[in-house]
From TrEMBL:
It comes from the Bacteria. Gene3D superfamilies: Cysteine protease Prp (3.30.70.1490). This is Ribosomal processing cysteine protease Prp. CDD domains: Prp-like. One of its GO terms (biological process) is proteolysis. It comes from Candidatus Alloenteromonas pullistercoris.
Length: 106
């Protein structure tokens, strides 16, 4: 199962962790994994200045994105769009992906 954990501090984005595999198809042919990977990688590429504003680690079966400070409105919109995409996949494949949101103390 793919586990998605997104954390907010106050009203803003703090971190995102996507880990695991959907196991809904053979390796390299798993459509759920492909969808999550495409959405997540595309979103990281759409951030305004990912190298300056975020610590991002991407490897097989894992993506971690940590905000280094305040996040711009543009980047908040990118992250929110990614969250909507992942929740949409979760609706169709609830046994393959789980999305959790967490509010951290300020």
């Amino acid at each position: 199962m793919i586990k998605v954990e997104i954390e907010y501090r106050g009203k803003g984005f703090h971190s995102l962790l996507i880990k695991g595999h959907a196991n809904t198809g053979d390796y390299g042919k798993d459509l759920v994994c492909a969808a999550v990977s495409a959405c997540a990688t595309g979103s990281m590429n759409a951030l305004e200045d990912p190298e300056e504003g975020f610590d991002i680690e991407i490897e097989s079966g894992r993506l971690h994105c940590l905000a280094k400070g305040a996040v711009s409105e543009h980047d908040e919109a990118v992250i929110e769009t990614l969250l909507i995409q992942l929740k949409t996949i979760e609706v169709s494949y609830p046994t393959a992906i789980e999305v959790k949101e967490k509010q951290l103390a300020k």
